[in-house]
Each structure stands twice: as C-alpha cells, then as structure tokens.
Amino acid sequence: MEQVLGSEWKITPAGGATGDAYFAKRDGQELFLKRNSSPFLAVLSAEGIVPKLVWTKRMENGDVITAQHRLIGRELKPIDMNGSNVAELLQKIHHSKELLDMLKRLGKQPLTPNSIIEDIQQAVAFEKLEQPEINQAIELLVRQLPDVQCDEQVVCHCDVNHNNWLLSETDQLYLIDWDGAMIADPAIDIGILLYWYIDEADWKEWLSSYGLELNERLKTRIYWYVLLQALTSFLWYHAKDNEKEKQNWIDHIKMIRIKMNSN
Is residue 17 predicted with pLDDT exceeding 90? Predict the structure, then answer.
C-alpha cells in the first residue's frame, strides 16, 4: 500500500478474512483502504450507506484500491438492533433502485427459493449426509416452497450481523461489508435480524419502523430463511470438520423447526 499513498503514511492491517484491508494515517487524516472492492461500493457511498468513498486507484497489476474515510464511532451492540434507525436504514437499502440497478449491471442474478433449495440438496448429497435433523429440515423447506414465493426482489446484504453496523460520533448509521450482497427476497435480511436479535413480541413494532405489517405469510418467509441460514451454517462447519459448531447448529435447526411447526 505504500506505493499507493507514499511512505509518509502509517499503514496497518485492518483484519478481516481476506487480508486485503488496511488503515492509513497521516497528520490526523485517517483512511480505510481495501484492495479490489466491488464497483458496488461507489453507489453504496453515494447513497450514504457506507462511509464516504474518497478515491479509487487502479494499479499497474490490475488491482483496484479504494479509500474511504475511516469512521470514528462504534459497532452496534446486539441490543441496539431493535432501534428504529436499523429498520429505517434496511428499508432504505431494500427500496433503493440505484443499488438494484448496479447489482444487475454487475451480473447478479436473483436468488429464488427453488434455486437455493436445489443448492442445499446438492451439497447434502455430495457430502453424503444422513442426519435425520438435516433431512427433516430440508423436507420442511421443500414443503413450504409454495408459501414463500415472493415477487419482490431487492438488494439484500445477507450478513446483517451487529458487527457490520457502524454508528458514527454524529449518530450516522452505516452497514458495511457488502461482499455477499445478493438480489433476493428482503425476508432474507429481515428474518435473520429479527430472529437473532429481537424478541418475537417486538417484531410488529420493529417491522412498523421498517414499513411492513407482520402477517402469517411474512412470518412464514422469515422462518423459512432463518432455517435456511441455519442449514447453510451447519454445512459450512461440516466442511470445516468442526464438531462443536455442527452440534450447535443442529440444536438451532431443531428449535427453528419447532417454531415453524407451532406457527
């Protein structure tokens, strides 16, 4: 990164799975640098969804370096996820035509419940998994396919973990880490957020801040995608041969199925 900024900048790794993110500091100015960010970042910045994009530079080797203002603030805590500011920002994202148009231009194809189930079934068959809890969960998802079809296709973040929400010193909220963004049913984001962070008794109020009314059809879609995410997480840890986390997700799958069958 020194060849991009110059030796007068102090550059340190910013962590993350890819190792392609850095912090840079000089004379009180702080930047967040990333190698090969998606062109999607420019639209996210223009929409005020991520910290402001300062510049983009293409290197001789073809790498693209982006620089954003380093945010002075904090990550949200789990309890913060019940705030109306979270619901309102997610609603803004899901209803942004600019974001949707950009993802389409980047070649993203909409995710459908049928295609997702096919991928899960293929992964389970490939791994030769015979666990009854997994097969029962897939059977339930297939059975509910007619009830989760949705004409609304929006930009979904797909990882609305509280660590990806940043609150600035001036109370400006941002949602970062867009590498997994997809075009899909907004219930993917809504469901994960509600299930893991908000008491079901408070779902109606949170959804009101988002602009939706809680009904049985929406609740079915929410739980459907929550179960799907739990299955995906189980398969991830199965591939990693992590028995402790596999059992953890089996327990979650059981609990989610109980919820789905009781609704």
Answer: no
Task: Tell me: do 196 and 115 sit in the same domain.
Answer: yes
**pTM of structure:** 0.89
- Let me know: does 160 contact 193? Beta carbons within 8 Å: yes
The verdict on 16 and 38 lying in the same domain is yes
Residues 149 and 215 in one domain: yes
**What tokens were used for 238?**
């199965």
Q: What proportion of the chain, given as a percentage, has pLDDT over 70?
A: 97
Between these two residues, 78 and 9, which has the higher pLDDT value? Answer: 78
Let me know whether 106 and 171 are in one domain: yes
According to the model, what pLDDT value does residue 257 have? 95
pLDDT at 52 over 80: yes
CA max distance for the chain: 62
> In a 10 Å sphere around its CB, with 0-12 CB exposed, 13-18 middle and 19+ buried, how is residue 79 labelled?
exposed
pLDDT tens digit sequence for 53-66 = 988 888 888 888 89
Could you tell me if 64 and 141 lie in one domain? no
Secondary structure letter of residue 185 according to DSSP: -
Q: What residue numbers bound the domain in which 33 lies? A: 2-70
As a whole number of angstroms, the distance between CA 32 and CA 11 comes to 10
For the domain that residue 54 is a member of, what is the CATH number? Answer: 3.30.200
Taking a C-beta distance cutoff of 8 angstroms, is the pair 199, 214 a contact? no
Assign residue 106 a region: left if phi > 0, alpha if psi is -120 to 50, beta otherwise? alpha
Tell me what pLDDT residue 93 has: 98
Catalytic residues: 159
45 in the same domain as 124: no
What's the number of domains the chain is made of?
2
